[in-house]
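Final report, Chapter 2: Outcomes

The project's central promise was a pipeline that accepts a single protein chain and returns its three-dimensional structure in a standardized token representation, suitable for archiving and comparison. That pipeline is now operational. To close this chapter, we reproduce one record exactly as it appears in the project archive, with the input sequence first and the structure output second.
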Amino acid sequence: MNKIFTFFNRYSWILLSLFCLTTCKHKPKPVFDLNSPGGIIIASYNDTTPHVVFYYKVDEKGNPTQEKIGEAFYYDNKQEYVGGGLKDGKKEGKWYAFFKDGSVQTEVFYVDGQRHGDYNLYRENGKPLLKGHYDHGICNGTWYYYDETGKVKKKVKADKKTIVCEDCPKCNGLK
């Protein structure tokens, strides 16, 4: 009994972290928010709540320049539903899509306008639905499909003959 107590006492922070990762909804801070400098509202809902906001680099005086560095789209409750950074007019860096409650629906990283890196898709309950990897816009590696409880139900290897993500040029060519 004493060994069990010592184990839980020593590793309680790890156990708490694992509990939170498996039960808490993932809510990262968006790349931009409505109060970010350089934000210009492009479209609004009927009650003037912002719907589409473009973000521009600001000069040393705090004035927006012509260089668009991001965009975000918002629900009518002012919660961002999709957004991320831009470079030379193309998606760049981490992009998120959110459910209306603010929990993450999709996480994806872009380089030069192409998906590049880990791709994560979540259910509204915070459990994973799909996880995979892109290499310069093409799905590769092993992709994991999850059931409603967050357990892996299927693994698919992204080879030249298998449709995996159904969205990249390789998969579209196989359809």
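Archive annotation: Residues 4-24 have pLDDT under 50 and may be disordered.
This record, like all others produced under the grant, will remain available to the consortium after the project formally closes.
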